[in-house]
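Reminder to self: C-alpha cells first, then the designed residues, so the page reads top to bottom the way the pipeline ran.
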C-alpha cells in the first residue's frame, strides 16, 4: 500500500476535473446509489400516519391530529406537520476524487448536517408525491497540505404532489471526506474499517444528573408554554427581536430516542409516555420513579445519540406554538455537529464561512461567542429558544418572518441550531 497523497484546495488532476464537471452536470457515471440516497416516490399519506406522527412529536397541539378541531381553521382539514414528508438527495462525489474516509482534525469534525426544507403547499391525508433531483454542486474546503479532502456537496431535490404541484424543495449540504493513495490503491471493506478505527473512540460528554432545581426550571417552562391556536398572529404585530415563549422537552431516555425514531419513520413504538408526563403528575408507566436519594430515575438511558431531526423537531414545536393555526412554515433549516472535547471545540459555521451560523443573527449570542458546540445525546433535555431576525413581503404578496431557534441542554451546550421562515396573515386582507 502506498502513501496518502496531500491535497491543495481547488487543485485537481485533469481526470478529477473532468469527473467533477460531469458530476455537476449530472452526467456522471457513478455506481448505483443506495436506495436511501435516491429521489423516490412516496406512499400515500394516511390520516393514521399523520395522527401518530403529530401525537409523537407534539401531543399538545390539536391542529395536527384532531379533525374536529382542524376543520374549523383556515385549512378545513388536518394539515401535516412540516417535516413529516420531505425529499432527500445525497451527494456521492466521483470515485476519481478518492475514497471516503473519516474527517481529520485539521479539516472538520462536525457531522456537517446542514439541511433546508421549503414548503409551498400544505399536505393532507390522501396526498402522494414524486421527487426529482434539480441540481448538485460542491464547495471544496480542503486545508492545504491535508491528506483529507473536505468537500461540501449541495443537493437540491423537489417534491411534487399528485397534482404536479411543487410542495417541498430540499436543499441539503453533505460533508464528504476523501483520501487517495499515491499508488492508486482503494481500500477493501476490512481495510476501511481499520482505517476508521485509527481515529480512536468518540468523545462522550458526562451525562447530566438532574436536581430538584433542574426539574423546577423545566416545570416552570411547561406551565408557561403558550399554544397560540386560534388567536391569530398577524405579520404587522411581529417585530425583529421578538422572542417566542420558550418550550422545553423532557430528558431523552433511550426509550424516547427509539420512540422519536419510530415516530419519524412511522414505525415502531409511537407516542408513549414521557418524563414530562411523570413530572407534571399525569399517570404514566412505572418506568419513571423518584429514587430514595431524590433523583428521578431515567431507565435504559445510555448516551444515545440523537438523530439529526430530533432537535429540529423540538424547535419546530416552539415555532408552531408561536405562529398559531393561521401560520405556515415556509422554511425549516437545521444544523448539528458531533461531540468534541471541550478544549477542541470550535465554531463550524463562523463569520466569513460560505454558510454562516444562524446563531450569529441573535445579537446576544454573537456577542457572547456562543455556537453549536456539541451533539444532542441522552439523557439531555432541550431548552428551546427562538428569536425573530427578519420580516419581509415577497413579490407574490406572502408576508414572512424569519426566526433563529436553538436547543440547549441543562449545562448550556447548544446541540441544534435552526432557521425558520413563517408565512403569516396580514391585517391588510
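Designed residues (429 positions):
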Amino acid at each position: 500500500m502506498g502513501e496518502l497523497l496531500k491535497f491543495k484546495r481547488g487543485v485537481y488532476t485533469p481526470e478529477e476535473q473532468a469527473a467533477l464537471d460531469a458530476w455537476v452536470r449530472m452526467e456522471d457515471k457513478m455506481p448505483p446509489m443506495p436506495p436511501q440516497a435516491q429521489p423516490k416516490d412516496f406512499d400515500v399519506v394516511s390520516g393514521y400516519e399523520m395522527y401518530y406522527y403529530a401525537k409523537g412529536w407534539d401531543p399538545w397541539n390539536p391542529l395536527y391530529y384532531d379533525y374536529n378541531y382542524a376543520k374549523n381553521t383556515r385549512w378545513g382539514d388536518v394539515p401535516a406537520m412540516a417535516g413529516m414528508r420531505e425529499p432527500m438527495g445525497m451527494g456521492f462525489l466521483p470515485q476519481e476524487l478518492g475514497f471516503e474516509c473519516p474527517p481529520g482534525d485539521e479539516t472538520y469534525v462536525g457531522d456537517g448536517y446542514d439541511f433546508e426544507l421549503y414548503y409551498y403547499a400544505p399536505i393532507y391525508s390522501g396526498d402522494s408525491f414524486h421527487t426529482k433531483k434539480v441540481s448538485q454542486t460542491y464547495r471544496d474546503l480542503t486545508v492545504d497540505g491535508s491528506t483529507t479532502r473536505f468537500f461540501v456537496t449541495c443537493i437540491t431535490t423537489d417534491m411534487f404532489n399528485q397534482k404536479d404541484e411543487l410542495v417541498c424543495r430540499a436543499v441539503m449540504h453533505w460533508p464528504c471526506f476523501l483520501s487517495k493513495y499515491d499508488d492508486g490503491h482503494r481500500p477493501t471493506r476490512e481495510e476501511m474499517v481499520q482505517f476508521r478505527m485509527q481515529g480512536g473512540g468518540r468523545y462522550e460528554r458526562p451525562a447530566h444528573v438532574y436536581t430538584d432545581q433542574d426539574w423546577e426550571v423545566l416545570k416552570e417552562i411547561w406551565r408557561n408554554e403558550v399554544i397560540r391556536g386560534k388567536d391569530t398572529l398577524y405579520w404587522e404585530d411581529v417585530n425583529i427581536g421578538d422572542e417566542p415563549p420558550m418550550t422545553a422537552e423532557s430528558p431523552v431516555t433511550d426509550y424516547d430516542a427509539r420512540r422519536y425514531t419510530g415516530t419519524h419513520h412511522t414505525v415502531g413504538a409511537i407516542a408513549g409516555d414521557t418524563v414530562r408526563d411523570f413530572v407534571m403528575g399525569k399517570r404514566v408507566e412505572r418506568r419513571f420513579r423518584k429514587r430514595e436519594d431524590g433523583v428521578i430515575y431515567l431507565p435504559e438511558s445510555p448516551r444515545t445519540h440523537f438523530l439529526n431531526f430530533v432537535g429540529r423537531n423540538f424547535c419546530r414545536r416552539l415555532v408552531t406554538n408561536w405562529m398559531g393555526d393561521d401560520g405556515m412554515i415556509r422554511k425549516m433549516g437545521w444544523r448539528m455537529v458531533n461531540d468534541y472535547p471541550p478544549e477542541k471545540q470550535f465554531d463550524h459555521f463562523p463569520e466569513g464561512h460560505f454558510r454562516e451560523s444562524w446563531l450569529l443573527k441573535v445579537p446576544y449570542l454573537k456577542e457572547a461567542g456562543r455556537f453549536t458546540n456539541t451533539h444532542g445525546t441522552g439523557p439531555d433535555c432541550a431548552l428551546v429558544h427562538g428569536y425573530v431576525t427578519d420580516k419581509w413581503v415577497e413579490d407574490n404578496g406572502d408576508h414572512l418572518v424569519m426566526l433563529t431557534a436553538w436547543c440547549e441542554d441543562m449545562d448550556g451546550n447548544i446541540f441544534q441550531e435552526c432557521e425558520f421562515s413563517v408565512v403569516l396573515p396580514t391585517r391588510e386582507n
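The mean pLDDT is 85.
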